[in-house]
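Supplementary Note 3. Input sequence used for the single-chain structure prediction.
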Amino acid sequence: MPLLALIALFLVMNPINKLARLLGVEGMDHISGQNVMEDADAIRDKLAEAFLHKTAAEWLEILLVEDIWCAPVYEFADIEKDPQVLENEMIISYEHPKVGTVRAVGTPVKFQGTPGEIRRPAPLLGQHTIEILHEFAGYNDQEIKNLLASHVVFNGESHG
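The predicted structure, written as discrete structure tokens, is reproduced below.
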């Protein structure tokens, strides 16, 4: 995997001249947050070239101790191995009554006194059609039967 795909730098939040110094790129002492956009393509190209000389892990070690905001950018399969993802339970598994074990995104906000949880599984296609038509659209039973019979709506059951 190419190094540039592994490190995301929030360049607007970091002093470019400090970053350039850490990467060994010369001639950027005059670059600041005020003039970084003036020659953004050339700056990006110089920094990209410098990143090729070390691994992502090496750059993270160098940059993080210097308070440069950076983080690895993972392939999808690598996300669940990240220590922060594991610690925050950002990928969870639960049992769905019809499809078995389902993996899903965990609750993103954690509260000490009222922790979030998955209380019920995701609905199946059409599972709540009838109650939605009753409660929110105001249809009566006969109107819903007509909609189902004419295949205008679907309630999860086969209509042949």
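The chain has three domains: 3-73, 76-122, 123-160. The two ends are 49 Å apart (CA to CA).
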